[in-house]
Design a protein that fits this description.
With 81 residues, this protein is α+β, with helices and mostly antiparallel strands. Helices cover 28% and strands 19% of the residues.
């Protein structure tokens, strides 16, 4: 997310607001310190963004996932070196 200083934000407010309305939020900073975040009114809240499945097709889980390391775990808990 872009950070814009307050002077630049005042100078280019119309363009920045239009970009935020199209889904490109930005942060306005004063003396390098972020002070506000500008987003579209109808933008989903960060917590409301659906994250389930965002890695679909990028990773695979082996069929024996729930058994991985079971022999070593059993050996550790049974006290065998």
């Amino acid at each position: 997310m872009r950070t814009i200083n307050i002077h630049e934000a005042k100078t280019h407010l119309s363009r920045l607001v239009e970009q935020a309305a199209q889904g490109e939020p930005f942060i306005i900073a004063k003396a390098g310190k972020p002070i506000v975040k500008v987003t579209a009114v109808d933008a989903p809240r960060q917590a409301a963004i659906r994250r389930t499945g965002f890695l679909a097709g990028h990773i695979s889980v082996p069929d024996d996932f729930d058994q991985l390391g079971s022999e070593e775990i059993a050996r550790i808990f049974e006290g065998h070196p």
